[in-house]
Amino acid sequence: MVRRWVKAGDRGSAGKAVTSESSESISSRRSRVNVVWHKWSDLRLLDHEPLWRAHAQPEPVLHVHLVELPLLSGASRVARIARCSPRRAQFWRQAVEDLAGRLAERNQHLVVKAVQDPAEYFSELCERLAVAKVFAHREFCDEELQTEAAVRAALARHGAELETCWGALTVHHIDDLGFDASDRKQMPLYKGEFQKAAKWRPIREVLPIPPLRPPPAVAAELGASLEETFGAEVPEEERQTFRWQGGESAALDYLRNYMESGQLPRYRGATESFAHGDDNPVNGGTRLSPWLAFGCLSARVVVKEAREWERRHGKSSSTAKGVGKTGSTGARLHTELLFRDFLRFSALAWGTSLFKIGGPFDVKGLTWRRDKELFEKWRQGQTGFPFVDAGMRELAATGYISHLHRQCCASFLIRDLQLDWRMGAEHFEACLLDHTPDANWGNWAYRCLQRPCLVQTRAQYPVNEHVTTVEVVAWPVVHDAQLEHTLRWLPELAGLPKDLAREPWRTEARPDKRIKIKPYKDSPLWFCAANRTNWDYEYFWLPGHAWTLKLGESEHHVGGFRLGVDYPRPLVPPLNVEIDLDALPLKRFVWGDTTPELRPHIWGGSAPRAAEAPQEKGYGKSRGKGKGSPHGEGQQLGLRGLAAVLGNAVESREKQPADRGDPITSISVIGGDGGSAPSKVKLYINRDDLDFTTVGDVESTQDVDLVEDFHGAIQFPLRAAKFLSVTSVCLYFPQSFGGERTRIHWIGLWGVGTDHKRQAVMTVYEARR
User: Fold this and answer.
1) According to the annotation, is 267 in a ligand binding site?
2) Could you tell me what percent of the chain has a pLDDT over 70?
3) pLDDT for the residue 516
4) Which domains does the chain have, with CATH numbers?
5) Distances in whole angstroms, Cα of residue 27 to Cα of each of 8, 32, 129, 425
6) pTM assigned to the model
7) Helix %, strand %, coil % for the chain, to 5?
8) Would the CA dihedral through 718, 719, 724, 730 be positive or negative?
């Protein structure tokens, strides 16, 4: 779409910022005036402190909005893509038109001007009018702060002044926090610390719209055409379930209706990843964020309206779970807006580091690529992961996706595609109706970019054989239980059974290795930090394991669907996550109608739930089941010990009671580092007579080639037919990965039919050099 600035030839009607310009009439009528500079982020009259300050002065007041062309039609710095999509530009235009109309109703006027450089514009304005002061909200991000400084300098050269104030940029005013938010030493590093410090601080009163002083006589001669600045209207997207109209009028109408219609009790919080069912974060948000971003509404007004509703109707308890998630839904809304405050204040403290590759935590040691082909597939929703693709297509078509989708899509780009995260942030900036630099870039850098501790773990124990953003597979189960959202945006999957539509790679994949995915401190899996601490009571429906896959080794033709033709193959190898269908916390759920044999490793309530394997020190400690866990421990035949076994061959035997035989399904081995881990194991079942002198002459039940596994996450499957009835097993480790000694720290035998055991039972160890 071509965007260019063309002066209009007619003045237009009241309330429309469409006028012609006469430099002769302007220069002949110089008078002392004050200016309210409405930026794209504060397009309102209510709760607007700069407006209050300007209209408290005796001089006429000129209201100005500058459409900064680098923000509207410029290219981004890293990915070199458009900085503002047509749909976001349309919302911006609607908000400006509404502001012009609301000012006209009060006998005021909005001057709208498209400019390359605001400082240059104000310098020219001072040459035409006797500007005393320009009143504006204070800035907090690097690019905007540079613009603010340039405007201040330009005004000073003409004897004018730029007076900025914090106003209602946040729920809690910067001067009421009790610390200097711009000082990195004082500003809390993490949101939890900030919320504790800020939650009980006072909230200032909402400023009503004051009586407005008239504009200068020449105001109507200073503007130009909005139509030729923002371009044509964008067609509506039929699949969109909610439509925003830009402007303060629409924002206030929607907020009142939201409260009066009783929707507040259903609020769960945009960032609450543990709320399930219909009122989950995908569906249960307020939808106020675009109006908050463009400043059509202040966060203080939202908190005030929520508290007033609860005062009249009573508080409703928030059902959101997790640390700090108690209280009313009004309090929960306040908490969510506090995170917005946190990112805004943090932007002040972080400075330019927010926009650098290492982010505010100066992350080093990650691999970054600028692969244009991968980036385009991500942007277009062609990654092969339905939850990601549905979100990316919705974003491109509507300018909005839920916070959960944003986290998943962003983390997938960072962790699995390993693309420069700033490319993703720039795409979100262009598309999101609710983009602000602090919230968008802050979420990317604070929530999705790995912290240094996680980078160190991943460097030590790289995960390249499967996707690490496990949420892209697990979250759709509870956040899109009916597949309504996924199929709305991925119609090419509508002909598949539901379980294959969730994970279309199942049409040509077979399971390979069973691995542990339960997160813990510094785990390389899962991006959401809360998943490392809240697992036991929030993810009880996940037994804690998944299967790696070999794609292209099996094929199930379903209605002519072809993976790679009708829908893309995954850009990174996926996982099949084990699900306890009977434990899902959902009233309505559809998994699918594919027969069980075509959906292996999707467990019901009677299936085995695997137990935890201890983690080797240095990679992260395993978290045991918490008290009151909804599900019990699994069935593991454990063989613990061998803290430091010397020699190039190790033999061990575990003997079960003679009157029973049990199946064994897989084996895990934690070995030493430095090449001392065993590279192969030979298994012999029900052979109590074997020792080092005879084991080499006997054919093993199965040989397993091992990999260096330092945390017990990999389970090597055994041939089911040969391990159905096991009374004893002999494990022979003939060689290591090259170390002088073979070291084994832990051996796990996994099976069904026995009570859970974490101790050695009738075990014999034998080691030789």
Assistant:
1) yes
2) 76
3) 87
4) 23-168+204-220 (3.40.50.620), 246-351 (1.25.40.80), 372-596 (1.10.579.10), 636-768 (2.60.120.470)
5) 20, 13, 7, 44
6) 0.75
7) 35, 15, 50
8) negative
